[in-house]
């Protein structure tokens, strides 16, 4: 029997000499989403760091190189393909990042391509991967974003922030769009463009599925927020689920996997 997933993400903790300087570097140079709790790029399942103020300069300890032929790194991030890798390299370089290891290709490992960025304390962040392009497809096999059409953007933003336990931030609003970056890297985008005159559909399909570890609590929480439960909790040996509908007609499944 397959075991249910119990760990969804992790953080690499690093001691820094100047916390505010490091926050600024990871936000402005490397494009991380920086909060008081973490610094992440592409969500908690992308590259996720915990920046901690070192008590003394001696507590800042970047890793040495394994040997004289290898390159030192403290964190290693994997990309899906070389196009993404090259894009990151150009982005970081254009913002003034120190490239401590220029891009190199190792033919015997994929081939594998990588480069390394150095932060203000000398920590080395490596980025690498194989060329993941498929012979017969230009489209990557993962869902990047999900759109929900809404009529009252402010109200819907508050509703979904409460449902998912997410912070509402001004920088995530762009005119008629609001973007929530989910922990798995997928974006949930609420879009109100041109929706004021569009009637709410009476019926529709499930648009996507969210997970919970407490199906009863999730059901109660959704009802308290004002979602309409259009399909009550169905229970099976391996999964339980229910469907909810918002006032714009968007239908979502919430499920709990069982061992």
UniProtKB/TrEMBL annotation:
Q: SUPFAM superfamilies in the record, alphabetically?
A: Glyoxalase/Bleomycin resistance protein/Dihydroxybiphenyl dioxygenase (SSF54593)
Q: Which domain of life is it from?
A: Bacteria
Q: Where is the signal peptide?
A: none
Under CDD domains, the record lists: VOC
InterPro entries on file? Glyas_Bleomycin-R_OHBP_Dase (IPR029068), Glyas_Fos-R_dOase_dom (IPR004360), VOC_core (IPR037523)
Pfam name, any one = Glyoxalase
Q: Which residues form the VOC domain?
A: 8-130, 142-257
> Which PANTHER family does UniProt cross-reference here?
BLR2520 PROTEIN (PTHR36503)
Q: Which protein are we looking at?
A: VOC family protein
